[in-house]
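Convert to structure. Protein one:
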Amino acid sequence: MDSNVEKCVKALIYAIRTSESYQNYQRCERELAKEPNLREKLDEFRRRVFEMNTSDQVDIYEEADRLEQESTELRLIPVVNDFLAAELEICTTLREVTGRISEEVGVRLPML
């Protein structure tokens, strides 16, 4: 990697890591880590969401209804709700940064 690009990448990483949204994400991650059973339950839920979205073996409508109900129940738990909100915020930032770089550099990425 070009040394100037490397320098700028490091600066971008530093800016992200010191941002309020990343700091909030880290705080929420630590709070969730204090409850390993809850973290395991959330990870299992997310695995099932991924499987539903990538499998043609599942009745998608039935599974979506079950997952929506489970999501509603999980979101009633403040530590889970806070974590998911913080995660969404930092992931949105990362997606916007990646999109902006791709757009400005002129690299056409397919819309998925």
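Protein two, convert as well:
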Amino acid sequence: MLRQTLTRILLVCLCMTVGNVAAQTDEIPQPSDYAWGFPIRVSRESSFYTIELPLEVNQSVTDPDLRDAGVYNADGDAVPRLFLPLNDEVERVDYSQSLPILPLAKAQEEAADEIRLIFERSGDDARVEFNAGNASALTATGKPSSYIVDTRALKENIKGLELEWAPLDTGFIGSVVVEGSNDLKSWSPIGSSAVADMRQDNATILQRHVDISNSGHDYLRIGWTGMPEDWRLSGVKGIYTVGMTTVVRRTAEFGADSVDPEDGGIIFDMGGAPFVDRIRVKVMEPDSVISARVFLWQERQKRWIQASNGSFYFIGRGRQTVRNDWNSIQRTRTSRFKIVQTAGRPDPALRLEVSWRPDSLLFLAQGRAPFTLVAGSADDASTGFPQQRIFGDRSIAGLATGTRTASPAQLGPRYSLGGPASLQLSDPTDWRKLLL
């Protein structure tokens, strides 16, 4: 009861503060001053609502930091709102642990019922014993056809394997299949991936990782196709995470938008500026390798800065293909990327995959529903972004968290409000010159 009373007092105080500010200024824009509207859909009544914002909202504002976006109630009055990263947790950290492995010859695989595996641990060592009659199968051939991996010492759930092998003179692209079992008799597939170790066009292509969906299996079996005759595993590491919350992220793929005449770089325009922290350059032509620098556009400074530099490839051998992995970059609000090629096939077909942490909207349900999110105003910059200045009080985040009253809501389809849809920000004023 006391908690509910305090919550009401805080809400009343916050509403009175906003109301007093609004009454003393004529800077409050009207919904019709904005270019776009998004109806807000709620499933139940609440004092606060929170919404994960789709990229379309970032594409609708004229300010990258969402300062020209607001929330209005059914009476056309603006309400307190706050834009925040959906979550700001540290990304999950991967750990690895070496696991005991056992090479098996084909004869030993086929006689699975007769195999008796006894893992006796002494530190990281493992000893394996076979029933008589099969013990010499691997020794006779010298060629393993699969490997058994013992995961029982690892308490955490494995999400992937890192394979290790000795360097070979012949480059290759092969396929690895991983199966899981608890009794060494019944096996179920839990993962597969192409692996590679080769050089092409002065680029080293090395892929050792295999994602798996390990549901607590005690043993894993690794099989393969397309490997050289002398390929052997020298070790296997289990990849796992500990105590980290999964970070919500969204991903989209973009085609080339234009070319920078100054350096010939290919520009990719997302149309909006979310917090991007991962990118992947996709070479679309098979058997292609390029070297390139990737730049991102700094929205406020109005300049390009380098975000990544490396080799990007799309290589195939038979049915197996490999691509370069994702590149992590410093988390930045940006709407554009530029790829400047430095080596490789001229004018390759490229696409860009972008991964970001979406923004979230938190607002006070002041007044009558329904509520509407508005975005895109050419006048907000010249008036000091009144939505942010008057209604962007960060204290509502603490209030909503402290009272635990924020309920999830969703945005409906975007529609036109008739306001100006574009804004050309003037160059930053050099106050030092004016003062002089």
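Helices lie at 2-23, 55-60, 106-110, 137-141, 386-391, 395-403, 431-435. The domain at 94-241 is CATH 2.60.120.260 (Jelly Rolls).
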